[in-house]
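Class prep. Sample record?

___
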Amino acid sequence: AGIEMPVNLKFCWEGMEESGSEGLDAIIEAEADKWFKGTDVVCISDNYWLGTKKPCLTHGLRGVSYFHLQVEGPGADLHSGVFGGTVHEPMVDLVHLLAKLVDNSGRIQVPGIYDQVMPVSDAEERTYEGLEFSHTALASDLKRDVIIHAEERDTLKHRWRFPTLSIHGVEGAFYAPGDKTVIPARVRGKFSLRTVPNMEPEKVAQLVKRYLQDEFAKLGSKNKMTVIETHAGRWWYSSPNHPNFVAGSRATEKVYGVKPDLTREGGSIPVTLTFEENLGVNVLLLPMGAADDGAHSINEKIDKRNYIQGIKLLGAYLHEVAATDMTA
C-alpha cells in the first residue's frame, strides 16, 4: 500500500496453546526488560465475536481452578456379586460428593464461594444492552434448548462474570461399551471452577477442600478421600475505557461502520495476565473470528469476510494506536 508502519512492532509467536503453552510464561517474564522492553501496549487476537455479524472488544476473562477428587477403598477392584452391600464403595462416595458441588440450576453449593464475587454495578448492567446475542441463536448452536436462564443478560452474566462449576469426568471407573459388574477400588472425579473478580484462587481452594471434607465426614465412610488442586489460573479484567481499547474501538468503527460490543469471555487465556503483570501495560483482546467458527472443533473455520476485514482491522488498529495518547 506504500504506507509506512505507524508503530514499532514486537511479535510473540507461540504454537503450543493446545498442549499447555509450556515455557511461555517463563520466557515472557525473562524477556520483560529485554526483548519486550519499551512495549507500550499489547494486542491479542485469540477469541471470538459474541455473534456472527457484529464485532467486539473483549475486556475480561474468567480464571479456572481445576480439582481432582479421589476416593480410595479396598486394595483391589471387587466383584459386586460377592462384595456389593458389604463394603463402602468408592464410586458411591464419589457420586454423592460430586452431586453436592452444584445444583441443576448451575448454582455452586460450596459455602462462601460467592462472597468474593464483585457486585454487578449499574454501569455494568448497561453494558448488556444492545449486544448481538439471543437465546434463539444459542439454542440453535446447542442443537437443543437446554438453556438454564430465562433472560439473555442472565445467561451472559453466568458465562462472563459469575463463577461456575462443571463436572468433567471420572477416572478409574468402567466406561467402555457393554456390562461389567466390577466395584472400582479407586476413583477420581474431575471438576473445575471458573473464577471471576475478585476471587482469589487460594481462598477458592480452601473453601472447596473444607466443604468436601465436611460432606465426606457426613457419609460415615471408611474409605479415604483426597482433594487435589491441579491448576489455578487467575481471572483477568481491564477497563474498556483505557486508550488501548479506545484505539481498538475507533479502528473497528472505521472498518465495520459500527461501534463494537464490549464483551467478556467465559474461558481463559492465561498469557493475557502474564503480559499485563510482567510488562506493566494494558492488554487488548481484539477478535477477528465469529461465534460460529467452531473453536477447537474438527471443522474449525474462519469466514472470508472475517479474514479480509480482520486484516483491515489490525492495520487500522496500528494507526489508531499511533494517533492515541496511551498515557491519557
User: Anything to note?
Assistant: The two ends are 31 Å apart (CA to CA). Residues 304-323 form the longest helix (20 residues).
